[in-house]
């Protein structure tokens, strides 16, 4: 395959049967495969009998490797980007490479497949019409609580990635900041020890506290009561969010825009007007 194209290829999040036929075919056809961890990906590629030049592309070499990958693309080569598991660019390296390729009019082709967030959401039984995927919460408690506060009035289900050794701390903060919501910890999805721990956040904390949680986890949080005020008039939504006092005007506007179905810039202008309104104090 010699047309300059960047393929963004999803790989399994555990179960190798989740590799798609298309992913196998394209990985076998490209000129170069850029992988987050070449040793890790080699096992996957060997399993599917794929033998292609491999190069690394991870968080700390993105700039220099990104330029080399772009050079290969400029020379008309086809490149596939894969990460250790799931969909590249989703809490994984890649978006800068995609952005730069797009800026140079290099075709970018997504090859969909597994993604832990979507896999967990699909089996959660929580509302899926609106959801927010927020990646990994900050590891420090203070920042994590601020992060959760910013999500407290978002509509829909919240989806987070977390490492197993921070799971309990994060669940405790969820309980503290977001209150007693329904929570699901989806663990080891598609693997032998797959399980979904469901219940109120207090129940899930009790269950998780019984032993050591191993493996990979996704946390899903049901919408809170305050987030269910769909189509709330803009001014009312802004007043309510601003009364919280902990959310920045920018975030207030962002959330109010979603709730009230207006543009972010309109919500921001209105938030500034209300903030500076002398009658409001
Ligand atoms: N790009 C990947 C995707 O599309 O899902 C995510 C990569 S991110 C670095 C890794 C995190 O995804 C893990 O810490 C965990 O939160 C989640 N994850 C990945 N595989 C998982 C699995 N099999 N079960 C549960 N969570 C998983």
Provide tags for this entry.
281 residues, alpha/beta, Cobalt-precorrin-4 Transmethylase, domain 1, Methyltransferase, Cobalt-precorrin-4 Transmethylase, Domain 2, 3 domains, five-stranded parallel β-sheet, five-stranded mixed β-sheet, 11 helices, 10 strands, globular, binds S-adenosylmethionine
User: What does the radius of gyration come to?
Assistant: 22 Å
Shape: globular
Q: What share of the residues lie within helices?
A: 40-55%
**Total count of domains:** 3
Assigned CATH superfamily of the largest domain: Tetrapyrrole methylase, N-terminal domain
Largest sheet: 5 strands, parallel
Number of distinct beta strands: 10
In N-to-C order, the SSE pattern is EHEHEHEHEHEHEHEEHEHHH
Which range does the strand content fall in? 15-25%
**Quick check: average pLDDT?**
93
CATH class of the largest domain: Alpha Beta
CATH architecture of the largest domain: 3-Layer(aba) Sandwich
Q: Within the CATH hierarchy, at the fold level, what is the topology of the largest domain?
A: Cobalt-precorrin-4 Transmethylase, domain 1
Hetero groups bound? S-adenosylmethionine
Note the total helix count. 11
Based on secondary structure, the structural category is: alpha/beta
Q: Biggest sheet, strands in spatial order?
A: 3-2-4-1-5
- The parts where pLDDT drops under 50 for at least 5 residues are none
């Amino acid at each position: 395959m010699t047309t300059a194209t960047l393929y963004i290829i999803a790989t399994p999040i555990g179960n190798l049967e989740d590799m798609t036929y298309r992913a196998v075919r394209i990985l076998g056809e490209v000129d170069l495969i850029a992988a987050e961890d070449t040793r890790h990906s080699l096992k996957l590629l060997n399993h599917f009998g794929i033998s292609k030049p491999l190069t690394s592309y991870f968080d700390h070499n993105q700039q220099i490797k990104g330029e080399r990958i772009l050079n290969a693309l400029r020379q008309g080569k086809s490149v596939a980007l894969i990460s250790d598991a799931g969909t590249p660019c989703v809490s994984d390296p890649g978006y800068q490479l995609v952005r730069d390729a797009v800026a140079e009019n290099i075709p970018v082709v997504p090859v969909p497949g597994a993604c832990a967030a979507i896999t967990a959401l699909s089996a959660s039984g929580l509302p899926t019409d609106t959801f927010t995927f927020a990646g990994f919460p900050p590891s420090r408690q203070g920042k994590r609580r601020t992060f959760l506060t910013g999500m407290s009035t978002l509509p829909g289900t919240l989806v987070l990635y977390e490492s197993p050794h921070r799971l309990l701390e994060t669940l405790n903060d969820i309980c503290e900041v977001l209150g007693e919501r329904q929570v699901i910890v989806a663990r080891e999805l598609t693997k032998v020890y797959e399980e979904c721990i469901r219940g109120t956040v207090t129940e899930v904390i009790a269950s998780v506290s019984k032993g050591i949680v191993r493996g990979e986890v996704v946390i899903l949080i049901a919408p809170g009561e305050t987030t269910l005020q769909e189509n709330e008039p803009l001014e009312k939504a802004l007043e309510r969010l601003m009364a919280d006092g902990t959310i920045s005007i920018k975030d207030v506007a962002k959330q109010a825009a979603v709730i009230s179905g207006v543009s972010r810039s309109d919500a921001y202008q209105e938030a500034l007007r209300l903030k500076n309104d002398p009658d409001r104090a």
